[in-house]
Amino acid sequence: MKREIVTHSERETYAFAKSFAEGLKAGDIISLDGDLGAGKTIFTKGLCDGLGVKDVVNSPTYTLVNEYTGRGGKVFHFDVYRIGDEEELYDIGFTEYLDSGAISIIEWGTYARGILEEYPNVLYIQIKKAEEDEERKIIIL
Ligand SMILES: Nc1ncnc2c1ncn2[C@@H]1O[C@H](COP(=O)(O)OP(=O)(O)OP(=O)(O)O)[C@@H](O)[C@H]1O
Ligand SMILES: [Mg+2]
Predict the structure, then answer these.
(1) Count of other CB atoms within 10 angstroms of residue 110
(2) pLDDT average, residue stretch 95-111
(3) How large is the average pLDDT for residues 76-97?
């Protein structure tokens, strides 16, 4: 069911994501989309907090994936903004990560959509900037 939430600060987005994490289960895949600076990484940080990750959560810039440990097991954090094509994702074992039973969070999931389409357990989340500087609309599809 589609849901829309409006947040008014980084803190609010983080807190929403943290509580959203309570509904996640092993093997879930979260695809995050939205413009540069929309808040995908902030959302990921909140999710990871909610999943009990104590590691520092930052966007994987030089690698494609960061691996954390949460209460329920591993959490994989991808940022696929810089991939050339989906072939590259197969090369790094993307599907093995997705199939591992861990929770996977993918920033810029749209660039992996051809692969994600094959998975029934993907939650698609869009974050949109709004008129106000610190306002964001979070759309859960
Ligand atoms: N309501 C809000 N929710 C989330 N972030 C907000 C909000 N208002 C302002 N911000 C700011 O927007 C920025 C979001 O940055 P973040 O790195 O999470 O974006 P991103 O979508 O991951 O960008 P990129 O595509 O570059 O990875 C932060 O600087 C944050 O402080
Ligand atoms: Mg980011």
Answers:
(1) 16
(2) 98
(3) 95
- Considering every ligand atom, which ligand is closest to the CA of 81? 1
Q: Which ranges in the chain belong to alpha helices (H)? A: 10-20, 40-50, 86-91, 94-99, 113-116
The amino acid at 77: H
Q: Across the chain, what does the average pLDDT equal?
A: 96
Whether 37 lines ligand 1, by a CB cut-off of 6 Å, is yes
Cα-based distances in Å from 59 to 3, 24, 104, 121, 131 = 26, 21, 13, 23, 26
Give the model's pLDDT for residue 81. Answer: 94
pTM above 0.85, yes or no: yes
Residue with tokens 């289960």: 25
Question: Ligand 1 centre from 10 Cα, in Å?
Answer: 7
* Helix, strand, or coil (residue 12): helix
- Look at residue 1 and tell me whether its pLDDT is greater than 80: no
